[in-house]
Amino acid sequence: MYIIAPVLAICSVVLFFESVHYVRNKIPAKVRRNRHIWILGIFPMFSMTSLLGLLMPRATLLTMFAASVYFSVCIYQFLLLIIDYYGGRNAMILVMKDKDVKVNVPPALCCCVCIPTIHINRESQPWLRRAVLQVAMVSPCALFISAVLWADGRYLPGDVSSRPYLWLSLITLLSTATGMQALAIVYQSSKVALKEYKITSKYLAIQLSMIFSNVQLSLLNLLSSVGVIECTSVFSSLGQTYYIYNFLVVCEFFALGIFARVFFRSQKMGNLDQVIHTDKTTELKEVYVNASALDGNDEGDTKMVQKKP
């Protein structure tokens, strides 16, 4: 493990810098390429922080804190990237204004069939953005408090009998679930319009990152608490859990980074376009006319260009 993990982590970093060089030279839009770089950085970040946690087990909480803060910001960056694919916030509102958007979608509300559909408009879209943005603020704050309590000896990761652990884990879970649910609503509403942008594969990379970094650790902690993961001569049961987790994360995010490179490190798959495809030419023309008449310039808003079939 101590040979495989460093090799994979270093390869992840090398591939990331190669991707940065490619994106900076091949994608001319500064805002677009910066968001691609943020997202591509998820995989070497988790690989390197987990490698440090593997080599220095006592620093695991701090390395998880750094990776989680970065990932929280990247969730919001991915939402902004989806909006940028439309041509900006105003363009997205105009294209989605007559469409019913389902709220009862995975991961949190898939069983709530009674929830009515909504329309993405000037009232609902800011709330969806804020729901995702709060992850980048609440989760880092909760993790920072965890690190402070851990340094003071009042917090032990994975100890379900600890009140601070339970409360902070609950806050982080609710915050993350809310943000991912809002992102899922935007994705589900954009799945057809952004099909040529390979939005499903890009969204899958974010979802798998969430599963590997959070859900996987919860499952391992559960196995440790019921005695499936036992202590060894080197580590306690909890230490062995984090040892396994860190090694798995290094391997998984190396493979996931290769998968994400196919879609984010490319001039194809909509990475150079800001075009909305529609079957109705009259609706498309209405979008162009109204977009130019709207007041205010939101970040990422640019003139939309119709792509030839």
The portion of residues assigned to helices is 55-70%
Q: Averaging pLDDT over every residue, what do you get?
A: 81
Q: Describe the sheet with the most strands.
A: none
What is the rounded distance between the termini? 51 Å
Give the low-confidence spans: 277-309
Structural class: mainly alpha
Order of helices and strands: HHHHHHHHHHH
Tell me the fraction of residues in β-strands, as a range: under 5%
So how many helices?
11
Overall geometry? globular
Structure commentary:
With 309 residues, this protein is an all-alpha fold. The chain is built from 11 helices and no strands. It has helices spanning 4-26, 30-40, 42-55, 60-86, 89-96, 124-133, 135-151, 163-190, 199-225, 237-264, 281-293. α2 (30-40) packs antiparallel against α10 and α3 (42-55) runs antiparallel to α10. The chain is globular.
Q: Can you tag this structure with a few keywords?
A:
309 residues; mainly alpha; 11 helices; 67% helix; 0% strand; globular; disordered C terminus
